Amino acid sequence: MKKWLIVLAGVLMSFTLAACGSKSVATTNGGKITESAYYSSLKSTSSGKQVLQTMILNKVLQKQYGSKVKDSKVNSDFNKYKKQYGSSFNAVLQQNGMTASQLKDSIRSNLLLQEAVKDNIKITDAQLKDQFKSYQPKVTVNQILVSKKSTAETVIKDLKAGKSFSSLAKKYSTDSATKNKGGRISPFDNTNTSLDTNFKTAAFKLKNGEYTKTPVKTQYGYQVIQMVNHPAKGTYKDHESTLKDQIVSKKMSDSNTLHSVVSKVLKKGKVTIQDKDLQNVLSDYLSSSSSSKK
Fold first, then answer.
1. Same-domain check for residues 142 and 219
2. 140 and 115 assigned to the same domain
3. Does some domain include residue 279?
4. pLDDT tens track of the chain, all 294 residues?
5. How many domains does the structure of the chain reveal?
């Protein structure tokens, strides 16, 4: 299935397929290109049809779920990306052909679609229990990153001798962002995708106050991890809301689920296509007989 939304990492296309007439889009010594000519040419292309699909979907999503997507949430997610890329944020936007405003629009579209998925799927106790198997509450750790295994072994030896993790982080860690903070990194749970898998696996095994007794090999080098706060996991009922959110996030990557949800949203939106040449632009979705919750 063609993706309806290029979520965050892709190019957000911003063509407008309305209010076209005889006004010139461009002029040349060989003649002018009018809005109507441009529109006629654009609507016959797959990219032009995709833009119209996205514009329609965004309209109906906003109508049905706009009240559930607050500006504060959009801004919060936007600031997370800004913080993640730091000084290279603007360069990353340019590389993806986006402006800050377009990124916010893309974030909002993604959140609207997420609300639609949440509203149109049925989550069973069996699914919650299955998700709970891999669930980990957010933990807080300190870490020391070094390039050599022997250096990591020296750090562990010094820890066993009673030296503080904070002092060893300042002395040995090559992570400039955390070495002067005792190696502290932001809290993370099982859904984190920025940390190395080996790092997360090793961290989740630690109890409060414990540190890894052998170097942890990651894509960045060798790391020594100290657990600061590892909350009790409890039962799946204790984390039902979080588990549902994690299941919804997984469903956002499932093409069959998205197709079903989009079909329901569009049918509820009572979409009518006036241009006879574009009347089949939503046929893959509006002709679907799938209307039951998955």
1. yes
2. no
3. yes
4. 233 333 433 333 334 444 456 789 899 999 999 989 989 999 989 989 988 999 999 999 999 999 999 999 999 999 988 988 888 999 999 998 889 999 999 999 999 999 999 999 999 999 999 999 999 999 999 999 999 999 999 999 999 999 999 999 999 999 999 999 999 999 999 999 889 999 999 999 999 999 999 999 999 999 999 999 999 999 999 999 999 999 999 999 899 999 999 999 999 999 999 999 999 999 989 874 444 344
5. 2
Look up residue 269 and give its amino acid.
G
- What range defines the domain where residue 46 resides? 24-120+254-286
DSSP code at position 185: -
Tokens of 167: 């002092």
Judgement on whether residues 109 and 37 belong to the same structural domain of the protein: yes
191 domain residue, yes or no: yes
Would 113 be classed as within a structural domain? yes
8 Å CB contact between 33 and 120 = no
Q: How far is CA 38 from the centre of its chain?
A: 34
- How far is it, in rounded angstroms, from Cα 96 to Cα 6? 11
**Phi-psi region for residue 183, left (φ > 0), alpha (ψ -120 to 50) or beta?**
left
DSSP of 219-254? TTEEEEEEEEE------GGGGHHHHHHHHHHHHTT-
Rounded Cα gap, residues 165 and 183, in angstroms: 8
Alpha-carbon span 258 to 121, nearest angstrom: 10
Which position has the token pair 């066993």?
160
| 165 and 108 in a common domain | no
* CA distance readout (Å), 291 to 81, 127, 281: 35, 21, 20
Strand segments (E) across the chain: 24-28, 31-34, 140-146, 216-218, 221-229
Q: Global pTM? A: 0.72
